[in-house]
Amino acid sequence: MSIAKTYTPADVEAKWYQRWQEQGFFKAKANPRKQPYSVVIPPPNVTGVLHMGHMLNNTIQDVLVRRARMQGKEACWVPGTDHASIATEAKVVALLKEKGIDKKDLTREQFLAHAWEWKEKYGGIILEQLKKLGASCDWDRTRFTMEPELTDAVLRVFVDLHQKGLIYRGIRMVNWDPQGGTALSDEEVIPKDTMAKMYHLRYEVVSDSLPVVSEQNNTDNQQLTTNNYLTVATSRPETIMADVAVAVNPNDPRYTHLHGAKVRIPLLGREIPVILDEYVSIDFGTGALKVTPAHDLNDYELGLKHNLPVIDILNNDGTLNEKAVLYVGQDRFAARRTIVKDLEAAGHLDKVEEYASIVQTSERTGAVIEPRLSLQWFLKMEHLAKPALAAVESDEIRLHPPKFKNMYRVWMENVRDWCISRQLWWGQRIPAYYLPDGTFVVALSADEALLLAREQSGNAELQLTDLRQDEDVLDTWFSSWLWPISVFDGFKDPDNADVNYFYPTNDLVTAPEILFFWVARMIMAGLEYRKQVPFRNVYLTGIVRDAQGRKMSKSLGNSPDPLDLIAQYGADGVRAGMLFSSPAGNDLMFDIKLVEQGRNFTNKLWNAFRLTQGWEVDATLPFANEKAVAWFAAKLQAAQQELDEHFDKFRMSDALMTVYKLVWDDFCSFYLEMVKPAYQAPIDAETLRHTTGFLETLLKLLHPFMPFITEEIWHELTQRGPKEYVCVAAWPKAQPAAGAADLIARMAKALDIVAGVRNVRNQKGLGPNKPLTLAAKTDDAALLQDYDGVIRKLAALTEITVVDAAPAASVGFVSGGAEFFVPLEGQIDLGAEKERLEKEVGYARGFRDSVLKKLSNEKFVANAKPDVLERERQKLADAEAKITALEQGLAAL
RNA sequence: GGGAGAUUAGCUCAGCUGGUUCAGAGCAUCUGCCUUACAAGCAGAGGGUCACUGGUUCGAACCCAGUAUCUCCCA
C-alpha cells in the first residue's frame, strides 16, 4: 500500500463529517449518568454568510465541545440563527426594490410573506458552511429566533415584564433614519469623517432683558456681543426654529453680563433665555451654544435639566413641519441652504468656518442620521442589572480574559433603560393593543387582549376590530437574551428534562462588542427566569483583522472567503491557523501564513503516520528502544498535564502550541528519529506497539483542534470497530508517573550533547552523516552509558569515549558542566578554536562574578529565601566547574 | 472630556505571589543540506537598554509615581 506523500484534506473531510452525523455523535440528550456540557451558539444573522469572525468563534466552540465529548460528558452544542430585524428587513426591501416592488405598497402581511420566503430560501446558508469547518453541533436542535416556539417565549416574557411593571412607554432620543423611516440602534450607525461648516449666527440680545451693568463687566472686551448681539456657532442653522435657549458657561467671563438675559432667534424673532451650564465648553465655537432639545441628544438632556420646552420641527422623512414656521415642507438640507442665504441677507450671519466633524450615517441606507425624539417601549434595567452584576463580580460567571470584568462593571453600574421597540415589520410584533380611548392592554393574543380591554374600559361591547395592535416589533436582542433558555424550551415548559439538564450552559464564546447587548442581558434573563446564571464562563474573542491591523470588511475587500480557505488548506489547517495567534480577548492579526502553518502541521502529522506505516516488523528482534519509549511516555504525560491546564484557563493558542510542539519537536524530531530503523531494516514489535500507541494518544489530543485528519489517520492506523472513532475516544488523562521529571531531564542532557555535535558538524561544514567519534570529559559517565544508543544515533557517532584530557586536534563544546571533543584530524584551526574558548571562558567568568557579587552581599544572604540562596550557590558551583573545564581545554591547545 | 487596558525579538504573543539556566515561544530571518516519512521538509545559528524617567528593594520586565504612544468603552 502506498500512501500519498502529501495530505489532501479535500479527499476526506466531507466523508468524515457525514460519518459522524450518521453515527449520531453530535446528538445530545439528557443523560443523568453523564455530566452535561452545553454551549449555545451565538446565533449568527440568518441572512449572513460565514466570515472570518465566525470561523474563529466557532472553531473555539468546537474545540471546547469536542474535548468535552471526549471527556465523556454529554456534549450539547445548540446551533441556530437569529432573525436580525434590521439587516434582514433591509435586505428584503432591497430585493423587492430590484423586482420593482416598493415596501410602501405592501401590507404588513404581504411584506412578511416575502420575508419568510426569502428566509426559507437563503436563511441557514451559514449553518451549512459551519459544517465545512467541522462544527459538531447537534443539528436536530437547530433553532431560529422567530420560529413559533421562540416567538412565544418572547411574547410571554414581554407580558410578564409588563405585568411586573418593568416595561413602559417613553420619549427618547433615537437615531432616526429619515430614508429608511426607522429608528436605528447605535451599532447600525456609522460615523463618517467629513468637513462641515460652522455658521456663526448673531442672536439679538433683548435689550430690556439685560440686568443692570455692574462695575466689572462694563469694559469693551465683549466683541462677541457688540451691537447687542450674541454670536452662536452652529453646524445646523436650519434648526434655529427649534431653539429654546442659548447656553453659556457660567465661568465664561465674556458672557457674565448676559446672565439672566434673553435673545431673539434670527428671522423668527422668538425670544429665548440665556441659560448657564458648565456643560458648555468655553473653547468650542463662540462658547455660546444654541439649545435644540428635539434635535440633539445633549441639548435634550440640557433641556430636561433646565426645564425647557421641546420643539420638534422635523417630519419622519426629514422635511420641516409646520412647527418650524419657516421653510415648512422643505427637506432639512434644502432648508439649510435657504436659511443660510436668508440669514446672510438679514445680516445675521457673522462668518462661516470649515471644521472637521463626524456625521452619523445609516449603515443600511447611507442617509444622515437625525437625532429624534420618539415614543418607544422601554425595559427598566435597574432591577435586572443588580443581580447580573453580582454574578460576575462574585466570579460565579467568569469572563476570559478577566480584564473585561471592569468594563462589565462600569456598564452595569451605569446601565440605562433598554429601548426594545423598532419601527420595522420583520420581528416579533409588540403585543400591546390600543383601545379607542388611547389606553392600551398587553396580552399574549388578540383574544386575551380583548377580554382585558373590556375589563379595563368597562365597555363589554368592545370588539376585536376596535383594538389596534402596536405597529412596532421588538429589538432582536429581546429574542436573543432568552436564547440559552428558549433553545431548551424553558419558557413553554420550564420543568422539562432538557432545560433541567443542560441549563445552565457551561461556556459561551462570543465577541466583546456584544458583552453588553447580549451577554449581560442573557445573564439578566437567566437570573430572572431560572434563578440561575446562563453559563459559567464567557470566552471573549478578538476581532479578526488583516496583517495591517485593519478590521476585515467586505467594503475593504481584505477578507479572504473562509470557504475558499478551507478548500485550499483544509478545515484542519484553517482551524489551527485561526488558533495559532489568538489569545483570548486580543484581536487576531490574520495572516495567510498562519493558515499555511496549520496546513503544514497537518502534513507533518500525515508524514509521521506514513513513516510508521512503512515499517516491517520482525518479531524475533528484542525491544531496542526502552530509553526512547520511557522518555516519550513521560513527555506525553507532562504535555497532557500542561494541555489540560491551558484548557482550564481558556488559553486556546497555548493549548494548541503545546500539542504542536509535542508532535513536531518531541515526537517527530526526536522520538521517531530515535526509534526509526535503518533504511529497509525491520523494527521490533515492542517498539512498534509503543509507537502506534503514542500516535493514537497524539491523535486524541489533536482531535479537538484538527478533527478531520485525526479521524482519517485513526482509521488508517488499524482496523476499527463500527463505533470506534477518535471523535468519541476517551480523552487521555494525565497520570503523573514517578521519575518522569528525571527521565525528561536526563534525556534533555543527552539531546543537548546531540545538539553540540550537530553544531560542530554545521560549523565545520561536515555532512549530517559523516561518521564521527566523541570524547567526553565528564563526572556523569552514567549518562553517556545510558543514552549511548540515542546520542550515537541522533548525532551519527560511531563511538563515545570518556577521557581525562582533551584529545589533540579536536573541536570542543561544553554541555551540562562537562566538556566534549570531536576529534577532527587535520581540520582544526587552532587560532579560531582558542579564540572561541577564550570568549566562552570570559563569558563564564562574568557570570560567575555576578553570582559571586550577589552572594557576597550580606543583605542578600540575610533576606533571600533559603531555596533562592541554594540555587545561587549551585549556579556558582556550576560556573566554577565550567571555567575550570574551559581553562583546561585552553591549556591543552 | 471621563474611564479601562496595553507598550517585552522584525511580526504575533507568553512571562503565575519580585529571586531557577545573565528574558521565553511560534512565525519570520541567516547558514548549510533534495540525509529514501515530510523542501508544506531537515540540521544549526543570530536576534531584546522588557516604551521613557524617577522611586521602593539586597534584588524590578514584574511593585509605586510621572511622561509618551496606542487600543477600547462611555459621553
Automatic annotation (TrEMBL):
Keyword Transferase attached: no
Cellular component, GO annotation: cytosol
Pfam families: Anticodon_1, tRNA-synt_1, Val_tRNA-synt_C
Short sequence motif 'HIGH' region: positions: 44-54
Binding positions (ATP): K554
Class in the EC hierarchy, top level: ligase
Domain Methionyl/Valyl/Leucyl/Isoleucyl-tRNA synthetase anticodon-binding: 631-774
Catalyzed reactions: tRNA(Val) + L-valine + ATP = L-valyl-tRNA(Val) + AMP + diphosphate
Every Valyl-tRNA synthetase tRNA-binding arm domain range: 829-893
Subunit structure: Monomer.
Protein name: Valine--tRNA ligase
Taxonomic lineage from the root: Bacteria, Pseudomonadati, Bacteroidota, Cytophagia, Cytophagales
